[in-house]
TrEMBL record:
Encoding gene per record: gmk
Catalytic activity: GMP + ATP = GDP + ADP
The Guanylate kinase-like domain, residue ranges: 6-184
Chain sites annotated for binding ATP: A13, P14, S15, G16, A17, G18, K19, S20
Protein keywords: ATP-binding, Cytoplasm, Kinase, Nucleotide-binding, Transferase
Membership in a protein family: Belongs to the guanylate kinase family.
Its EC number(s): 2.7.4.8
InterPro entries: GK/Ca_channel_bsu, Guanylate_kin-like_dom, Guanylate_kinase, Guanylate_kinase_CS, P-loop_NTPase
Kinase as UniProt keyword: yes
NCBIfam families xrefs: guanyl_kin
HAMAP family in UniProt: Guanylate_kinase
Lineage top rank: taxon: Bacteria
Protein name: Guanylate kinase
Enzyme class, first EC level, given as a word: transferase
């Protein structure tokens, strides 16, 4: 397993729990962390732009990328396909940047198999009623799509105990504080580990 200078954070949550809002707010205050833009076969929502929220691609293009093993992970979620391109992430992490992935739990567990020090963070809503209310307030999905996402949320939330960290997004600022604290603490931890490794190598008398 390759050792990159950058760290990897993976955020998963049921639809509407607030993961996109939290990740966006984190990146506004933390310039050392870069988003990964996924590829999807889902249609863009109102304000979404190709290359910003997602690369919106056809089923055929998705098949081609899958065929040439361009994805670090991919999964079908709520009836659409989503995948993380391997190339961009490895480049960022090689350059020493931290990378944050916003992907579903199936993808998160695939990533952990490839990066054993990936940090898996699960965001929970405070209640079912609030989850439904947020999906409705967001106003981007039809009632049928909202019902499908709520039905899937039960199964998704049952996976939270497989993650390294769980954050309850009740008060937004509080949840953002928790996310920042996790990123900061893990960054320090890996920096200390790397330093310790360098110290060991520096101490070895190899010509
Ligand atoms: N496995 C995987 N899941 C993804 C990827 N990109 C997005 N997702 C997940 O797909 C689900 C649906 O995302 P989206 O359609 O943007 O809806 P939202 O979660 O309601 O904002 C969410 O759980 C995302 O985290 C990806 O590259 N891989
Ligand atoms: N703590 C919070 N309290 C109230 N509303 C929130 C909170 N966090 C997010 N929201 C709102 O809930 C909706 C869903 O958030 P979003 O970030 O799109 O979720 P996700 O990416 O998990 O699907 C958005 O309208 C967002 O503004």
């Amino acid at each position: 397993m390759k050792n990159y200078p950058g760290n990897l954070y993976v955020v998963s949550a049921p639809s509407g729990a607030g993961k996109s809002s939290l990740v966006k707010a984190l990146m506004e205050v933390d310039r050392g962390i870069k988003p990964s833009v996924s590829h999807t076969t889902r249609a863009p929502r109102g304000q979404e732009k190709h290359g910003r929220e997602y690369y919106f691609i056809s089923e055929a293009e998705f098949d081609r990328m899958e065929g040439r093993q361009a994805f670090l992970e991919y999964a079908e979620v709520h009836g659409n396909r989503y995948g993380t391109s391997r190339e961009g992430i490895e480049r960022c992490m090689n350059e020493g940047d931290d990378v944050i992935l916003e992907i579903d739990f199936q993808g998160a567990l695939q990533v952990r198999k490839q990066f054993d020090n990936a940090n898996l963070i699960f965001i929970l809503p405070p209640s079912w009623d609030e989850l439904r209310a947020r999906l409705m307030r967001r106003g981007e999905d039809s009632p049928e799509v909202i019902e499908k996402r709520l039905a899937n949320a039960r199964q998704e939330m049952a996976q939270a105990n497989r993650f390294d960290f769980v954050i309850i997004n009740e008060l937004f600022e509080r949840a953002l504080f928790d996310l920042k604290a996790i990123v900061h603490a893990q960054r320090l931890r890996y920096a200390a580990q790397r330093q310790a490794r360098e110290d060991v190598f520096a101490g070895l008398d190899i010509p």
